[in-house]
Write a structure and sequence with these properties.
This protein is of the alpha/beta class and 342 residues long. Helix content is 22%, strand content 29%.
């Protein structure tokens, strides 16, 4: 459940969850958001129009929309409480197309001859540990929606077969079942010449997204990567220094990333951040907010501002624990979330 949507509770003090703090938990390589159901009604539309409608009703974002060659207005559809995958399977199978899902981003492509057969499985291996890093023996590891599963051995190891795009679930008595999502940050470390090859290799790990694969300022190369990469790209440092509406519109329209990352301290404060969010949403670009090593005063302000958007994506805000001499604030860390406490 999204902590932002939770109502005030009474304990010893009134608290309201604000947002999730991203925890990088490397337990196994594939992760995904839970799949929601939507209702949809369209008549005589082309594929791109259908995908745009799905984006409006879900957290899904489609890549390669501008490259779809199918312009036939031959899709008429009325569905109730269906997952996005079920809708796509219904439509794309008639067009000889297929899709690949990575996190909340889906790529559409023509079905290759070899993929018309049963999808191949891959061996998924990993280690399940507790919060202290100790291996958990006998944890249940399963492929969501199937009967495929195993348990961890004495060292916490597991191994099973899964098809790319499936979700791995881990459960154990005393722990809730978890779907782990991983994001990575390249900090502009890739060169334009080898970035695509590295992105293809990273996409095999089913990551949610990668931040700033090449250094900022290379708009043409970054635009090529965002349109062709199998791994969704989030702009980070690229946004620094663009402070007017016109500059922000020009950058996002030129590069068309799958996500942008808002850092209020570096992107014109809260007002500047709201401008980036407004422009991103016009172009169906996803976003999340992160902090930039602010003290508790800044973190408290950003946290409360962040909560007003009710963004379903996990946010990347700090906890204030980096500093040894800090002022008190009304935020409290509870497991992987920050709470506002009166």
């Amino acid at each position: 459940m999204n902590p932002v949507n939770q109502r005030l509770r009474k304990d010893k003090q009134l608290c309201r969850k604000f947002f999730c703090v991203i925890a990088i938990l490397i337990i196994f390589p594939y992760v995904s958001f839970a799949q929601g159901e939507i209702s949809l009604s369209v008549e005589n539309v082309d594929l791109k129009t259908l995908l745009v409608e799905i984006e409006k009703k879900s957290d899904i974002r489609f890549t390669y929309l501008n490259q779809l060659s199918d312009t036939n207005k031959d899709i008429s559809l009325v569905v109730t409480n269906k997952t996005v995958e079920e809708i796509l399977n219904l439509v794309l199978s008639k067009k000889g197309m297929e899709f690949t899902r990575t996190g909340n981003t889906i790529a559409i492509q023509m079905r290759s001859p070899q993929n018309r057969q049963t999808a191949p499985t891959k061996k998924v291996t990993g280690i399940v540990t507790d919060s202290n890093g100790e291996p958990i023996i006998g944890a249940n590891v399963s492929v969501k929606g199937t009967t495929t599963g195993t348990i961890t051995d004495i060292d916490g190891h597991f191994s099973l077969e899964a098809i790319q795009g499936q979700t791995i679930l881990v459960s154990f008595i005393g722990y809730s079942s978890k779907e782990i999502e991983l994001r990575v940050d390249a900090n502009g470390a890739f060169s334009p010449t080898d970035a695509m090859e590295k992105l293809k290799r990273l996409s095999e790990l089913d990551l949610h997204s990668i931040e700033q694969p090449i250094r900022a300022g290379q708009w043409e190369e970054m635009a090529r990567l965002t349109s062709e990469s199998p791994l969704p790209i989030a702009l980070d440092e690229e946004l620094i220094g663009y402070n007017t509406w016109e500059e922000k519109q020009r950058l996002l329209s030129a590069i068309r990333p799958q996500y942008i990352i808002i850092k209020p301290s570096l992107h014109g404060g809260l007002a500047g951040g709201e401008e980036w969010i407004a422009e991103a949403e016009k172009l169906n670009i996803g976003w999340w907010i992160t902090s930039a090593l602010e003290s508790n005063i800044g973190l408290n302000a950003i946290a409360q501002w962040c909560a007003t958007f009710q963004n379903p994506l996990p946010q990347g805000l700090g906890t204030g624990l980096l500093f040894t001499d800090n002022v008190e604030m009304p935020l409290e860390i509870r497991k992987d979330c920050l709470w506002f406490c009166k």
